[in-house]
Amino acid sequence: MIPDLQTGIRDKNYCIKSVAVIVAHPDDETLWVGGMILSNPFAQWFIVCLSRKRDKERATRFGQALKVLGADGVMGDLDDGPNQKPVANKVVEDLIMKLLPHRHYDLIITHNPSGEYTRHLRHEETSNAVLRLWNSDKIDASELWTFAYEDGNKAYYPRAIQTAFICQKLWGDVWFKKYRIITETYGFATNSWEALTTPETEAFQQIFKQKDIKKKQIINT
Question: How far apart are CA 150 and CA 141, in angstroms?
Fold first, then answer.
């Protein structure tokens, strides 16, 4: 069962009400955190997707997915060509700052710095840009989590990392609704990579700001 953000996470006793999810592509929000979103409909979810705004089909399907998820969101048009040439840090950061409403969030969730599988450069660039902005206090959030999945260097479909801060199996009906978003809303075939990947267990790592880590190190020495 995915944690109830309203009653707290592990040793936390406060309610997480506002959550921003920052992803590289339309469908990432469903694949990696869809169960968390569906399991916490009371929260205010805002999803930032950095690419495919000009892709009319994917953009339309993203809008439909937001409705099923009960979330608001916005898209950008970051280069997502097949060659996957690196994008400058500033370009990614500026786009995030442009798309993400300037407000305080209880929680921001994004890609892992090493991605969820081997290998997608845009996932890594998105994650690292969010981490830089958060560490420099340019985006305001009480907590930051990253998706926690790995594929054994392409040995298998992405799996939740069992030792992550949060790693819990979805209820069957929640997973099925998430799967239907991938196969019906987004239109991926049942034998597609996306459909076969759709995780039944979701996992997240908690990230700490560099300045907070340094403070803890000073206190403990």
Answer: 26
Q: How far apart are CA 128 and CA 146, in angstroms?
A: 10
Question: Rounded to whole angstroms, what are the CA distances from 48 to 64, 108, 149, 158, 168?
Answer: 15, 11, 20, 22, 24
Strand partners, 164: none
CA distance 17 to 64: 23
Query: CA of 143: how far to CAs of 46, 94, 130, 167, 208, in Å?
Result: 15, 21, 12, 17, 8
Q: What is the pLDDT of residues 25-60, one digit of tens each?
A: 999 999 999 999 999 999 999 999 999 999 999 999
Q: What pTM was computed for the model?
A: 0.92
Q: What angle do CA 76, 81, 83 make, to 5 degrees?
A: 145
Q: Domain 18-220 is in which class?
A: alpha beta
- CA–CA separation, 32 vs 111, rounded Å? 9
CA separation for the pair 28, 22 (Å, rounded): 9
